[in-house]
Amino acid sequence: MKLIYQFNEGNKDMKDILGGKGANLAEMTSLGLNVPPGFTISTTACRKYLEDNVLWLELKETVLSNLRLLELKTEKSFLGNRNLQPLLLSVRSGAPNSMPGMMDTILNLGLNDTSVKLMADFTSNERFAYDSYRRFIEMFSNVVAEIPRIEFEKQLESVKIEKNYNSDSDLTISDLKLLIEKYKKIYFDFEKTEFPEDPTRQLFLAVEAVFRSWNNPRAITYRNLHKISHDIGTAVNIQSMVFGNMGKTSGTGVLFSRNPINGNDELFGEYLMNAQGEDVVAGIRTPLEISELNKEFPNIYKELFDTSKKLELYFKDIQDIEFTIENGKLYFLQVRNAKRTPLAAVNSACEFVSEGLIDKKEAIKRISSKDIENLLHPVFDDAYLKKSKVVGKGLAASPGAASGKVYFSPADVTIAKNKGEKVILVREETSPEDIEGMLYSEGILTSKGGMTSHAAVVARGIGKCCITGCEDIAFNKDEKYIVINDVVIKEGDFISIDGSTGNIYLGEIPKVKLDTNENFKILLKWLDEFRKIGVRANADTPNDAMHANQFNTDGIGLCRTEHMFFNKIRIPIVRSMILANYEDERKEYLDELLKFQREDFVEIFKLMDNKPVTVRLLDPPLHEFLPKTDVEIKNLAASMGLTMNDMLYRIENLKESNPMLGHRGCRLAITFPEIYKMQARAIIEAAVISKENGININPEIMIPLVCDKKELKFIKNHLVDEINKVFKEKSNSVEYHIGTMIEIPRAALLADEIAEEADFFSYGTNDLTQMTFGFSRDDSNKFLFDYMNHDVFSTNPFSTLDKKGVGKLIEMSAQLGRTTNKNIKLGICGEQAGDPEALELYSKLGITYLSCSPFRIPLVKLALAKLAI
Ligand code: ADP
Ligand code: MG
Ligand code: MG
């Protein structure tokens, strides 16, 4: 078992043994960069220490023999030799996975009352020597004895106040000496023993502290959060010090080989002269921009520039580099792949491909779904977000960030919007009628409903930020205010909501909009090159279709016709149609609706030339369309020539106690075939009109909620009849297909029979999940939370496809369907179409296409491309 590696013995691929920092220090050393020499204690040693809790003899001896090598290399002395300059060390933790800020570094180790004097003599810089000693005592006490840094800073501050100093650099040598005594006393008071003078003892205590820090609560939480194993352990890097605090020609800084905010090919970074270690980030003095260095020390700047480019070329990614300048000489202390914004991720990945550094596959791998999500939605400015207080939290239902004045009804939203206000719609839940208010608002917040509630689905569809299920909201509708966790928010008050975290804030928070740029479009094309499954859009309006085209949709997989019914002119006609008592009466209203639907389809088809469009016939229970307020009911009665009583009676008649399992979907068409006939006519007439205009559309007509072959057959006969009539009237025809949704378990069980009548299946995973579990989509949010709390379920089946149960139904029915209809097309159109974890199943089953809301297309494409490469 090799416990220790000198920097020149390792390389970048040994992260498991040497940790990320150690492996890259080794790599930089063999690349010939100026890295202060040192060695790395392996993670293997750490694991053994964590078992036994002692530094064993062999490890200690190996440390000492490696130290001797280091003394020879540096021509300095760690243990104390009056004729040599003292060798000071930095002790740096470094786990295989980067765990930023988890474990602290100790600098200047080896200093004591004797060596500090030697150091002063050798460097002829007494101030520097004592400044380093002071820093060492503070860091050592903090890391090894866990004494809060504030104890030391209080002492420092009081000296500065007493002497009226502005900055640490005003401290005189005698101030520093005094501080050192005070610091040692703090150590003694906490530890009841003297500050250790013996450098070897200092070193072993420091190594133990780094090992132990693997299990400090912060580190454990971080690993839990990032799903990192707790058994790995950390490496310890022991390195000779170089000093950025030696005077005017010394300094320290951080450098990025490209701008990590936008990916621009320019050096980006900060530095401070006469400073050490964390001074740059600690905010004690304001650091200078790296470009300033070019003016002060052009040679050093050039060396930095050249090396950063060399490292970037070598590691094939943006590099984050730590450096120190000692008396005009440049040293490299750390290099790693830089953390970057989503914009920089996309830009740099694309540029690296065009520079030939990486190939398209590698570029795709580097982009995360979070990157794309953030790119498509504006996000709150981090700086302001940190200062804002979270007043409540709900489900992160649709990503993005929005600020606006609170209004509680779609009508009030519309009024406010017309006055030019920015609005957040806050409601218990939303219904199809609220669509206008939703469109007008910046974001939507509901107290009820889950990830697939109406508000959530619609918000994702229209790309609005949305938080659902914030159960802490109490409504006072009469006086128009809400209370969230004791905070009162009145109508017209500003709030901000973050649909990516579910957090609700008071007031307005500035946003940054990351535009989809040329590189994003290039990336999209690459995704299309690699993915193997089609990606279509759920698009109900020409506007949706336009958005979908922005992301190169393969077509429309779900066009929900009922969404075309909700607007001021159409809804009264829809209502009259529903409430009509006789077929003749109903037909009159249907004829009017036909015009509207045909118009819509013509518009949508125009945008989808040569692409498949699947239109779903009317699906929701009829009562969802009914008038609710007294005024609405009265007006409707008047226009239909009915008495109020008659009207109320008809409305009452349509009430259902369990509407989701009631008179909806194809069941409506068993009772009223004329409704579906009208819709089929609208679709086909629109397709013929499109054809006459040179646009090629072969519509796919989809029947929802089928549970039996005979249901489908009955409806299909009606549709085919009507379609043939259209062909005859127009003396023209188009190719079309009729298929069905599989969303009732019985349909999945009898898929072989159903496939005899269907050209395609489309899995509506929302309803299929609802009916397979028997969990109401609209109510399950309440109890599913407890399921997850008690670990009964690990995920919500409405957001992550239940592969075991629902997945089995999909798999079984796909196979059954193929036994009777070999070439049946299979699509997925529910919320879980985009579930990255289900993609493998979909591709195994030979699903033809996935259909998702327009704004999710790039995300689904990314996941599919990653699956294929
Ligand atoms: P972190 O993992 O928090 O970045 P590091 O181990 O990189 O911690 O150390 C933090 C800082 O300490 C470095 O950026 C560098 O400025 C300073 N430092 C570390 N090792 C040395 C060294 N051998 N000589 C001089 N400064 C060092
Ligand atoms: Mg570092
Ligand atoms: Mg459905």
From TrEMBL:
Residues 518-867 form the PEP-utilising enzyme C-terminal domain. Residues 421-502 form the PEP-utilising enzyme mobile domain. Pfam families: PEP-utilizers (PF00391), PEP-utilizers_C (PF02896), PPDK_N (PF01326). Residues 16-63, 85-290, 302-348 form the Pyruvate phosphate dikinase AMP/ATP-binding domain. GO terms for molecular function: ATP binding; kinase activity; metal ion binding; pyruvate, phosphate dikinase activity. Its EC number is 2.7.9.1. SUPFAM superfamilies: Glutathione synthetase ATP-binding domain-like (SSF56059), Phosphoenolpyruvate/pyruvate domain (SSF51621), Phosphohistidine domain (SSF52009). The active site is at H454 (tele-phosphohistidine intermediate), C829 (proton donor). This is Pyruvate, phosphate dikinase.
